Amino acid sequence: MSAQLTLQAPLDVPPAEVGPYLERLWNDGLEGSTGAATFTLLVWEPSWLEQQMVRLGRVEGPIRGLDRDDVLQAASAAITAVGLPLSTAPMDPRLTWALGTLPGTQQSSDQRGQFVESAISAHMPRRLITLAPTLEAGRPLETMVAAFCPLPEEGSAGAACGDVIVLRGGLGAIQQGLPLIQPLVGDDLPCWVWWNSSLDEPPEMLEALAPLPRRLVIDTSLGEPARCLDVLTERIAMGQAVNDLNWLRLRSWRESLAMVFDPPSRREALAHVVQLDVDVEGDHPVKGLLLVAWISDRLGWHLISSQAVPEEKGGVDAEFQRTDGATVRVRLMPVPVGAPKAHPGAIVGLRLICEPPSRPHLCVILCSESGGCMRLESGGMASMELAEDVVPLPEEKEEVEMARLLGGGHDSTNPLLAAVAPLAAALLPR
Amino acid sequence: MTTLLTNPLRVGLRQERVISPQCMVIFGASGDLTHRKLVPALFELFRQRRLPSEFAVLGCARRPWSDEEFRAKMAAALAPVIAEHPVAWEQFSQGLFYEPVDLQQSEHLVRLAQRLEAIDRLRATRGNRTFYLSVSPEFYASGCRALAAAGLLADAERSRVVIEKPFGRDYGSAQALNKVVQACSSENQVFRIDHYLGKETVQNILVLRFANTIFEPIWNRNYIANVQITAAETVGVEDRAGYYESSGALRDMVQNHLTQILALTTMEPPGRFDAEAIRNEKAKVLQAARLADEDEPWKCCVRGQYGPGGSAARPLPGYRQEAGVNPNSTTETYVAMKLFINNWRWQGVPFYLRTGKRLPKRLSEVVLTFREAPVHLFDAAGGAPTPNQLILRIQPDEGADIKFEVKAPGSGMRSRPVDMAFSYDDSFGEPSDEGYVRLLADAMLGDPTLYTRSDEVEAAWRLYTPLLELIEESPWQLPVHPYEARTWGPAAADNLLAEEGLSWRRP
Fold this sequence. Notes:
The complex is a heterodimer of chains A (430) and B (507).
Chain A (H helix, E strand, L loop, with lengths): L2 E2 L6 E2 L5 H12 L10 E5 L3 H8 L13 H13 L11 H8 L14 E2 L1 H4 L5 E7 L8 E7 L13 E8 L1 H6 L4 H5 L5 E5 L7 H7 L5 E4 L6 H13 L4 E3 H4 L2 H10 L3 H4 L5 E9 L4 H14 L2 E7 L7 E6 L5 E9 L11 E8 L7 E7 L5 H4 L7 E7 L6 H10 L7 H13 L3
Parallel strand pairs in A: 3-5, 3-8, 5-7, 8-9, 9-10, 11-14, 16-17
Antiparallel strand pairs in A: 1-4, 2-6, 6-7, 11-15, 12-13, 13-14, 15-16
Helix pairs in contact in A: 2-4, 9-16, 13-16
Chain B lengths: L21 E6 L4 H16 L7 E7 L5 H11 L1 H6 L1 H8 L2 E5 L5 H18 L5 E5 L6 H10 L9 E5 L7 H14 L5 E3 L7 H11 L13 E9 L8 H26 L8 H14 E3 L9 E10 L4 E2 L17 E8 L9 E6 L6 E8 L8 E2 L8 E7 L3 E9 L6 E10 H4 L7 H11 L8 H20 L6 E6 L5 H8 L9
Parallel strand pairs in B: 1-2, 1-4, 2-3, 4-5, 5-6, 7-12, 9-18, 14-17
Antiparallel strand pairs in B: 7-13, 8-11, 9-10, 9-11, 11-12, 13-15, 15-16, 16-17
Helix pairs in contact in B: 1-12, 6-7, 7-13, 9-10, 9-13, 10-13
């Protein structure tokens, strides 16, 4: 359960008064309490899906801006109702867009920014700034401020306090309120910017919120694939510390594949890969491309060509050259699924075929716990050593993954992701 | 032959748990342990990206070094590693600081607190501090008192203290030290380190026992006839004579390392995998352990001391000829003993522990010998069937073997023993992290699972109290038997088992 952290109900303060109010709060109201010397977390939290669902009466309010099972269930149910393919993921921005065309006028209170996952609050952010744009485009800017101190019953004796600031309003109003942000973020503590939305949203907002040296957290499963990979690669090239939740969700696939080649007797086969097939849900290839790019980067392959698979939206055919000059054929295929996972482009299966000379050929098949390997299992592998495994589904919510990043972060991008991102971008047919 | 290529897909996948922003404060930073183990372990964690960017090391000792001198000394000590990773060292060393501190001087502690606050601001370490007492054991108590008096242990969530071994010299001194430490901090802030617990294979005892269903049903007195735990070293006392003369093998190896392995091998399954559940079970089983004969302890223990040995071309000095050793020393370099564990699971099963220096091989292992089949239906190639054994190899060649009987090829029905072997190298092929890497990470994560709790330490000392008292009060009853260097210890140690018709495993 998520904890409501604010010590007091957030107080509406005129935008111009936010700074002076916070000064008074720390000097008078919280006298004797030191602010946590931790970090600032700045969250872009439009929660469009949740807002649409509440507006349509498909879920009840209040709007909280957290991962909610009931919102995802309602979204799954709505996919066919709005005429999208069954393989559409509930978090797919196209669903939110389609829902926006439906009539509905339900209202609910908006508590975004006031609820924080306990895993995040455990790290005692010094300042939480939430930008909460509303569906109503013309809504004026509201700013709310509250202090929070961990409660004694949470076992936090000696813990330090922080504050919560929420900027809510229509997109235009939020843009007008952006000058408030810089003085609130300050320069003395690390600042994380969590872009908790689609990367298709106005790029100016991302530019304004996430200049260097702020650390950026994005999710490349949300948004048009080229835009997602462009943001990722550009930001890494700028020298920003970028974390991609879509990449982090690949961890169990990477671990499962690495495990296959842990026995030294199998390792030689890695130098003789001839074919790699990756199946992904729906038509969002980014996660699959990140997986292909990671494998090719680790094995030192050189990209020769990449093209769209004719008549298969999201399908990619690519050719790599191994270090010994031999060719590796790669195919990424979108496959239809009946019950897609929450995020677009989840991996369904992977097949890696190795043909080491003078040893039995090796076929590695990994498949998703909820999917199946039938497509990858078909065709001509009877003479090969078969290594087959099921990759467990990650069970953690976005907030928990985010909390892990906040718990001990880096001021540079993970070198693996930095190497993989440009390769994934080059693999995407344009 | 196995091709020992590294697994390129494994790179970067060891980041399961995240260490919070942190300042590691090392007292005794001018000592050996700091540059031989601690800073290399921290640098390894940094290279694996297991440390956050907001990280700092503050070295503290009495020498009036500056930050730059400390960095230079660490750089000199780690030169071969740095040559391979110069960029990483450049980044890591920016977080190395030094503060001259004498823990007995209160004004130094005031200055230390101010320095830590400055580091918090400079490196955003959020007030999370791990104090590592790498000082002489007689300063453990006063060091904890000084830290507490300076308010540096007040925040139980953000400050921890790591204490090196030996934790006390006997039951009484361990109790006294625990009282001081617990008066200064809460138990969950205290990390008593035993680097043996940082070894993958020691931890694997838990996984082997409690992640499989095939072992636990037979892991008891109904199926196991005896257990041998061996930690053998080929080296002599080397440059540790000063310390070793006052400790000996019993204090140096048995009370901590071997006893921890005994506890992991014999504990009951914990209800869940967390530090308290595991340490509860370890403490319980140690409290149930007894010397095989507490009234006449000389009957269940043999002490030895290595004499000269080696070959004419490469002679090895005896212990008494080593530099810094009293020529009439009666310090044991070898000890073997027999224990029982008085509980439902282990009643009547003898546990044989041995450790020694200058033995023929360097190895640590646990050997569980199972009871013989009730009826011998077949001729055995060796005369009688060899009892089944499960051998957990802790080092080197880490892994596990099961010995069992199979039909020897041929027309008869003769049986002979064979091995079914698991080897870490063959299955994983990657070198394990040095124990300190794992243990330092755990301390900074606040995970004490692999650290010993106060009641475990006390139970371990209490177990050997009859022997320590005997050595203190009437050492002639427990003489040190000489043994030739590079042999398997004194013959008297064999007699411990021979009475039961058993013998030590010759690995």
